[in-house]
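Protein 1 of 2
SEQ + STRUCT:
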Amino acid sequence: MIACCLSLRLKTCVNIRLICPGFRWRNEAFYYFCAMVKKHTVFLLLGSNIHPRVVYLHKATELINILIGDVIITSYLYESEPWGFEAPVAFLNQVVCVETVLEPVEILKKTQDIERQLGRTEKSNGTYASRTLDIDILFFDDEIINLPELTVPHAQMAHRRFTLMPLAETAPQKEHPVLKKTCLQLLAECADECEVWKLDEVKADAL
């Protein structure tokens, strides 16, 4: 029975006393089980063009830490003109790298929950609009995922300068598993003409 418990995931291991009533629970055992759970590395793109933009991005990062996993790297903030539509307010974007035990669809659901918590209305089909918060899954380890609700790596990544600039900052040598090019190479080859610039930190605090 103990051998069976060793294969359980982290979220199950906290309830191990319920399924293994004869197992003597110790803190050492808990950490042993947790160490066996595989951690994934996920890159997320955060974006907002509704004020206060910086506040939305900061709150999103806090919620990601709580609901998804440990944020281990964050890029600078980048400002850009809206991509694919016109709007009076420019976008702020940031890439965060997260260590998580969640699977891709679980992460998608958590990111959608965070968007809703921060005022995001339901996503439209194929059209772009201003938003309090948008979270895209860029990479999940080196996996290629094609599901009706989720495509990873993100399908538009290589065509968007506002994505590639913060991504190349955080992981310049990470290779796209489909295109077989690094993030830095993708940025150098990107034909997107939309202007993107790193936001001054002093200015960002006032936004």
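Protein 2 of 2
SEQ + STRUCT:
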Amino acid sequence: MDSHEANYREGRIEARKVMHRRRRLQFTSLAEVLIEGTRLTELVEGANSQREDLADPDARVVHLANMPLGQALGHLGRTLNLSSDGLAYRFPLPMRLMSRLFKRQILSGALVAPFEQPAELNRVVTPGFELIAAEGLAELQAAVRRFEEARQFQPNALLGPLSREEWVSLSCRHAEWHLGFMLER
């Protein structure tokens, strides 16, 4: 672990504290998510974003929260793959029931609230800190290709069965959340 990663891990940032500074993004397709991911990756020349409070003065892209760009892009790809692979982890029943009650609001983006994922789930859907932007983008691109070729989908672990359009909507809201924390300097 290098000194940047050590400093980064010591000072986890609560998303709630920086939400007001996020970029407000609105994606309508996975192609738009890829365009923004590609644009940000090009700005960092394939390397990675730096956490804003630890960034070098010449950093082109900084992140406000805990995931650097590469990790966020890889995470988006891995969660999109759940549409084909499904997920063995089961959220507690009350959480699943509440999520399904608010399914329409979640898919439309009207309900946005951060929540801490259980460690067991994080191990499946969150790549390591060291994943650079070019690698994370490649994971996301592969996941989008796989999704576009899929004919049937696994139920979402929180929302239950979703159509192709609902998976796209959920993935767009998810990308708006994570990529919104990436700021261009």
